[in-house]
Amino acid sequence: MKDLELKYGCNPNQKPSRIFVSDGRDLPIIVRNGRPGYINFMDALNGWQLVRDLKKATGLPSATSFKHVSPAGAAVAAPLSDVMKKIYFVDDMGDLSPLASAYARARGADRMSSFGDFISLSDTCDADTARIIKREVSDGVIAPGYTDEALAILKEKKNGNYTVIEIDPDYVPEPLEHKDVFGITFEQGRNELEINNDILANVVTKNKDIPDEAKRDLVISLITLKYTQSNSVCYAKDGQAIGVGAGQQSRVHCVRLAGNKADNWLLRQCPKVLELPFVDGIRRADRDNAIDVYIGNEYMDVLRDGAWQKLFKVRPDVFTEEEKRAWLDRQDGVSLGSDAFFPFSDNIERAKKSGVKYIAEPGGSVRDDAVIDCCDQYGMAMAFTGIRLFHH
Question: DSSP states of 341-376 as a string?
Fold first, then answer.
C-alpha cells in the first residue's frame, strides 16, 4: 500500500488528508481494524519510536500512552506490587504478562491524561494486554503484531471500530526528514541519538552514586523526553514515567507541572486514598476524576453535600495539606530528566519536594554552578549528558 487516505487532517476542515512514504516505498503499516485518523497516526508513530527505543535500551517489553503527540506515561515491564495493582485498577486480573504490566504502568502514571489515549507497544500484543486495553477508554493501539486471541478481543471494542495498527518492526526511515509549515519545507537529519547508561557518565555533583535502578529510570525519562513536545521534563521511578510536563514555555513551569503529576502518583499510594469508599458500580472515568480532585486543591467539589453521595458510600475526611506533605516527605529515589539545561536552581528546589534524588540534564547554563550547589545541598546526584532533546 503506497498511501492511505484519511478522513481529514488535524481538524475536520483540513482536507484532503493522507499518509505516504515520500521515497515511494510501501507504507510500513497495516490497519488491522478501525479507521485511524491524522492525529492517531501522529501519536502512533511517535509512540512506536519511543517504545522501540525503550526496548533497545533496557531489553524489556515497553509501552506508552500518548495524547496529542506527547506521552502521558511510558514504562518497561516490571512486576506489580499489590499497591501498584490497586492504583492501576488491575488487581482483579491475576498475574499479568510482562507487556501487560508495562501498559498498566504506562496508563496508570496519569490516568486523567491517558483518557482516550493512543497506545504503542514494543512487542506482539498478547491477550493479557488486550484485556486491559478493552476496559479502558482508548482510541487505538500500534504494535509489531497481535496474537489471534488479542486481535479478537480488540476487535470487540468500540462496537467493532477500535483502531488496531500493525507496524513493520524492521522499517527504517530515510535519514533526512521533512516538515511543511506555511508552505515552506523544513529539512533536518532524524534524531537517531541512542540513549543508554553511557550518557550518564559525567556526574558533576559531590554525590556520584547513581544505582542501576536509578540509571534505568533516568534513561526512561530521557527517552520519553525525546518524543515529548518541548519544553519538557519527566519524573520517573520504578521503571516508569510518573510525571511528564510537556510543551511549556518556562522550564520551571515544566518542573512544576510534571512534579504535580508525580505527586499525584505518589499520593494515590497513600492508604487514605487507597481506601476511598467508592459506591458500587462507579464508572472508571468518574472514579479517576474523583481521585484526582480529592487529592488536589478543589477537593470540596467531590466532598460537598450532594456530590459525595454520588461517588462514595460514606463521606471521606479531607486529605489535609499537612497529611499530603507528610506522605510526600517520606518519598525518595525519584529520577528527573530534562530535555535542556536548568537555568536556575528553583527547578531543583521544586524537584526536591517530589522526592527527586537523581537528575540528568544537558548542562551548559551560565548558572550551572548554582544548580550543582543546590543539588549538593540536598545530596542529589546529577549527570550532565551534554545532549539536548528538543522535539517539535
Answer: ---STHHHHHHHTTTEEEEEE----TTHHHHHHHHH
